[in-house]
Specification:
Elements (H helix, E strand, L loop, with lengths): L10 H4 L14 E8 L3 H12 L4 E4 L15 E2 L7 H8 L1 H25 L10 E5 L2 H16 L6 E3 L1 H8 L6 E5 L3 E2 L2 H14 L3 E3 L6 E4 L4 E5 L2 E10 L19 E10 L4 H7 L5 E4 L6 E5 L3 E7 L8 H14 L8 E11 L6 E4 L4 E5 L5 H16 L8 H4 L11 H17 L3
Helix pairs in contact: 2-7, 2-10, 3-4, 4-10
Bound molecules: flavin-adenine dinucleotide.
The site of flavin-adenine dinucleotide (FAD) has 45 residues, from helix 2, strand 12, strand 16 and helix 10.
């Protein structure tokens, strides 16, 4: 049996609802569709397959939600990595409007799953602020508001520097962009609740069950695991930044770059302090190239995240760097201890979009969300299920754009170090 890794010591794992036990696969299994990866993408795909009456099984190498899904910031942000106006320039007005509609529908998918299964994950449309660190970022956000208004979406609005300071508890921003529709969740509770809902509908879930080899033939696909083989008509790969954990014999791991991001939380704060920092409970991320994000976390804590180690290895210096950034933004927290520190991996792609597509007649995948998976995984999981059912999807560049292996993928760590140095310089210059 392979080693099942525990969840990282996150605020989410220490405050989560109890997990249902899904035993490792022991023996062979036959089903219509097998899903590799028990995170938001794989669970959403299973949910949509089950609703369509397709038999399916989810196999997860560790515990359900062990990957990025159970340890992220829980921020369902209604923006892609690229600005709206930038998307319109790059892909044309029609495609940008289609992408805008997709993102709004993605949050509806997430909310729909939560409400249909009654998942206790604190889903709340508490709103998200994109806080501008420099003048060019402020102009970019203003251009976005204008583009959205022309597209008929007047929900997001600009915040002045004073309003941003009032709502984020820090005076380090020049202004902000508030989308009141964005939502926060407890990510591990969402993953656990969705898994329990799937089990209740007859989906077979097996944790501690890594797929170690796949084989496709005219009759179907076989997925080998240490405890048995799953035989299915369709294979759905939902392993995102953890695709390289096991060599499945595909080139998917070379189409993304796994990048570490790290998070800390303060010890519990007095309610009055928290009310001064985030009086309306907004989620916040800034516009730096090496961005920081923060929100309220369970137990009246402040959660603060940012860039992790470039090699992906745990290091004290990453957490002390984050603590410095936290205190720079919130000097009043200088003496408050930090009580949780953890890291995880996001999957970065060259075009900053996730991709949902096929590898062959029987194999499809969805991955590459960067820091935008909380909102998009529900939708792309649904699209993944549609591909497995032989249907077509319309996801603009997320489906139609090329998604090839990245040249010189083996040199990604020195390349990331060079890029991180360049970004640090741009951030210092506030460009
Ligand atoms: C610290 C952190 C903070 C983040 N914050 C945010 C945020 O606030 N907002 C946002 O939108 N996004 C955020 N993200 C990104 C978001 O979490 C991801 O995009 C999303 O969770 C991806 O979900 P997934 O199901 O595709 O992949 P994952 O949740 O990573 O699941 C993949 C799973 O596949 C399993 N696996 C891999 N190989 C195999 C195999 N061979 N066999 C079986 N199982 C396998 C892994 O064990 C893993 O559990 C954050 C990510 C991190 C790490």
């Amino acid at each position: 049996m392979s080693k099942i890794l525990p969840h990282p010591p996150s605020i989410w794992s220490s405050s989560a609802n109890p997990a249902q036990i899904f035993p490792p696969l022991a023996g062979d299994l036959r089903t219509d569709a097998v899903i590799v990866g028990g995170g938001f993408t794989g669970l959403s795909a299973a949910w949509h397959l089950a609703k369509a009456g397709v038999g399916c099984a989810v196999i997860e190498a560790h515990d359900i939600g062990w990957g990025a899904s159970g340890r992220n910031g829980g921020m369902a942000v209604l923006r892609y990595k690229t600005s709206w106006a930038g998307l319109a320039r790059r892909h044309g007005e029609d495609e940008a409007r289609h992408l805008h509609g997709l993102l709004l529908s993605a949050l509806d998918v997430l909310e729909g799953i939560v409400s249909e299964l009654g998942i206790d994950c604190g889903f709340s449309r508490c709103g998200h602020i994109t806080a501008a660190n420099g003048k060019s970022a402020l102009a970019m956000l203003q251009a976005d508001i204008e583009w959205l208004a022309a597209a008929g979406d007047r929900a997001p609005r600009m915040l002045t520097a004073a309003e941003t300071a009032e709502l984020t508890g820090t005076g380090c921003y020049l202004g902000g962009y508030l989308d009141p529709r964005a939502a926060g969740i407890h990510p591990l509770n969402y993953a656990r609740g969705l898994a329990a809902g799937l089990a209740g509908r007859g989906v077979a879930l097996h944790s501690g069950t890594p797929a170690v080899a796949i084989q496709e033939d005219a009759q179907g696909v076989s997925v080998a695991t240490p405890g048995g083989t799953v035989r299915a008509g369709q294979l759905l790969i939902a392993t995102n930044a953890y695709t390289e954990l096991f060599g499945l014999g595909t080139d998917l791991h070379r189409r993304i770059v796994p990048v570490s991001t790290s998070v800390i939380t303060t010890a519990p704060l007095p309610v009055a302090t928290l009310r001064q920092l985030l009086p309306e409970g907004h989620l916040v991320s800034d516009t730096r190239h090496l961005l920081n994000y923060f929100r309220i976390a369970p137990g009246n804590r402040l959660m603060f995240g940012g860039r992790g180690s470039l090699t992906g290895k745990e290091s004290r210096s990453v957490y002390s760097g984050l603590e410095r950034k936290l205190v720079e933004a919130f000097p009043s927290l200088a003496d408050v201890p930090v009580d949780h520190r953890w890291s995880g991996k996001v999957a970065v792609t060259l075009d900053d979009f996730p991709h949902v597509s096929r590898l062959g007649q029987r194999v499809s995948f969805a991955m590459g969300y960067g820091g935008r998976g909380v909102v998009l995984t529900g939708l792309l999981g649904r699209m993944l299920s549609l591909l497995a059912m032989g249907e077509t999807v319309r996801a603009g560049p997320m489906h139609a754009a090329p998604f090839a292996p990245i040249p010189f993928h083996g040199l990604r760590i020195p390349a990331m170090k060079a890029v991180a140095g360049y970004y640090r310089l741009l951030d210092a210059l506030r460009i």
